[in-house]
Amino acid sequence: MILVVLGTHELPFTRLLDEVDRLKQERIIKEEVIVQHGHTPYKSEQLTLKPFVSYEEMDALYEDAGLVITHAGTGSVITGLRKGKTVIAAPRLKKYGEHNDDHQLQLVEAFTAQGHILSWNDGEKLEAVIKQAKDFIPKPFQSGKQRLQEILTDFIDHA
């Protein structure tokens, strides 16, 4: 199963859904596709659409997914990485009215440079990235949270 995640941002991201829907219609994608589409209005005969889901349902969807295609929201990307999934992140772009700015480009750039994810960028073919995902082995993600807590604890203990 492929999980497509658009998150909860109020601006639509139909560009990604149009591309996934096209690939499903053309049978380039053969797996079941479940889409959490949030505020993006969309109709499809090919995709299973869910506007919003509970935390528990989203967790189960991530667990069941063989591939996660997501907007480049930090939480959505990191959730996939923590579960050891292959993640393709697609940045929402200001020029298409998908976000207020282009900060998602920076997140994609950082995570791809570190070998954690693949990305689908403007002007690229999603099918090429999906083919690349079949052999992609993501570098395990480790949060810096633990180290930050150690530094703060050490500082407080010695202040």
Automatic annotation (TrEMBL):
Localization: Endoplasmic reticulum
GO aspect biological process, one term: dolichol-linked oligosaccharide biosynthetic process
Protein origin, superkingdom: Bacteria
Pfam families documented for this protein: Glyco_tran_28_C
InterPro entries: Alg13-like (IPR039042), Cps14G-like (IPR048097), Glyco_trans_28_C (IPR007235)
GO molecular function list: hexosyltransferase activity
Residue stretches making up the Glycosyl transferase family 28 C-terminal domain: 1-157
Membership in a protein family: Belongs to the glycosyltransferase 28 family.
Name assigned to this protein: UDP-N-acetylglucosamine transferase subunit ALG13
